[in-house]
Amino acid sequence: MKKASGISSAAIQALIAEIKPGCSERDIALRLEIIARQSGADHLAFDAIIASGENSSLPHARPPIGPSGKVISLLLISCHI
Predict the structure, then answer these.
(1) Where residue 4 falls among pLDDT bands split at 50, 70, 90?
(2) Of 30, 36, 60, 75, which is least packed with CB atoms within 10 Å of its CB?
(3) What average pLDDT does the chain have?
(4) pLDDT of 63
(5) Based on C-alpha coordinates, what's the Rg of the chain?
(6) Handedness of CA 9, 15, 19, 23 (dihedral sign)
């Protein structure tokens, strides 16, 4: 459990460093899963929820396809190793 927690924390930190204006919520969610898998996760425990603007208050938001240009919320993730 400690290893999975470490992978999740490191993946989020790496992701935050990569987020730039113009990134879509879908691209950010995909990149999060890629980083976690590259760090040793078999898969995420659940789909990453990345939301911005009006969607950021929705606990199970589904991202739109294009970039939003707004503040982004992301739920903490967990992974299976």
Answers:
(1) confident
(2) 60
(3) 76
(4) 58
(5) 12
(6) negative
d(CA 23, CA 67): 5
Rounded Cα distance, 59 and 35, in Å = 23
Residue ranges of the domains in the chain?
A: 2-80
Of the candidates 21, 48, 18, the residue with the CA atom closest to the CA atom of residue 33: 48
Q: What is the pLDDT of residues 34-70, one digit of tens each?
A: 999 999 988 888 888 787 777 666 666 665 555 555 5
Which residues are bridge partners to 80 per DSSP? 43
51/9 Cα distance (integer angstroms) = 19
Give how far Cα 14 sits from Cα of 10, 62, 65, Å.
6, 22, 22
Query: Which two tokens mark 68?
Result: 């939003």
Q: In angstroms, rounded to a whole number, what is the distance separating the alpha carbons of residues 69 and 37?
A: 27
